[in-house]
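Example record used in the benchmark description.
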Amino acid sequence: MVCLVGGWWPYKDIDTIDAALTRLKEPLHLIVTGHPLDEQVLQRWRDLPGLRLHAVPGPVTDSVLRLVFAAADATLVSRRPGVAKESGLVMDAARLGVPLIVSDHDPALTARLHGQPWVLPFPAGDPDALADVLHSVVCQPP
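Model output (structure tokens):
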């Protein structure tokens, strides 16, 4: 199970996630929470045969967020290439001990995370690489 936390803001790369989910080779459970979310994208994901979507829309309390992280094998952070914005989600994953699937959108962040056993990086904007990482999480959770 993978979680996708936080609102879908322009710097987040939902397009890459969307494309990667259509390439899944194994069934995947995805928990999505936050605000704003795009209901059309969520419906498209609900219709994918290999994806089981669990949506918790809206801002959530810290206790609900902890439950989402606890239920997940990994959390997914995907940003558009070149976005160098601090990610509270990366910090939450580190603080709560949740393995992290993260795009290499920010060279400084990528350098800090390099070699960490709980981090699964993928090239920003590359849905095939993200699908491969998701496949590895399904087959062998980190």
